[in-house]
Amino acid sequence: MRSSITAALVVSGCLLALSASPAAQGARGGNPSENIRAARAALREGRTADALAAVRREAQANPASAAAANLLDTLGATADARAIFQRIADAATDPAAKAAALRGIAMSYAFDGDCANTVKYEDMVIAYWVTREQAEPQNAFYQEGEMANEGARVCIDFGKLDIAEKYYRLGRELGLKEPAPKTHPASLWEYRTAHALARLAARRGNAAEARRQVAEARRILDADPTMAAAQERFFPYLTGYVALYLNDLKTAETDLTKALATPGNTNDPFMHWLLGTTYEKLGQPDKAKELLAKAYSLATAHNPPAAFVRATLRTPNSR
Fold first, then answer.
1. What distance in Å separates the CA atoms of residue 294 and residue 298, rounded to the nearest whole number?
2. 7-28: per-residue pLDDT in tens?
């Protein structure tokens, strides 16, 4: 259930800043159109209706605009977004382009909190990468693992824990198939798996298993400093997440504050949502409202964290 704080954010229309991600540039790969620029400007100013009108003009002018589809998902018009992605997929003559459009559909379903359809389409993207295993084995197996993990992330965020575990384990299995010379170490997949299993255990209320997996994640990081250089920033997020779901709220506050202060994490909408939720539970509504508003404004990418934050702070009773 959403709190009154969360509901207030939606009523007040807290759409503060929209950053243009590479995916939002659209299928054409050039500069965004006038309509897309207008839509982003309207979002920055909190004029949601104007933003949606500009995106619809773009979709009418360019029925295969991935940039328009991405923004439609951000604005909650997910069925319209999927129609565009499907049109792109149907017209694609290049298998890679079709796979990219199918991935767009997978993420569009994430904006609805639809775990089942997200993984259905991620499976299709994985099937594309299977066809690339002979030509580019290092990249293909890595991408297969990434797509499985991406689907898993959507499912855990929306509470479909068994499906999430299945896909996290599949991601590890696929990623570890990468042949030598490996471009992604086995330790990366082992760390990601321990990280995921700790979060799953916390969500299930299994404190002992959650702490065991946190310790395993720490051990893996310490054993591979090269891998850890890029992954260390996700550790305080892990400990804060586990603490929140185990109701150790002071630890959650400390660790999630540390996570958000870590370079690379400062604009992460999900980490803002976690800390805002922690302050809700601590009975500090002003801090909670500020962080949840920031989370919503940062949730502009076409990826699982943005999808969860948008869906959760927009849809009544989504949690």
1. 6
2. 344 333 332 222 333 333 333 4
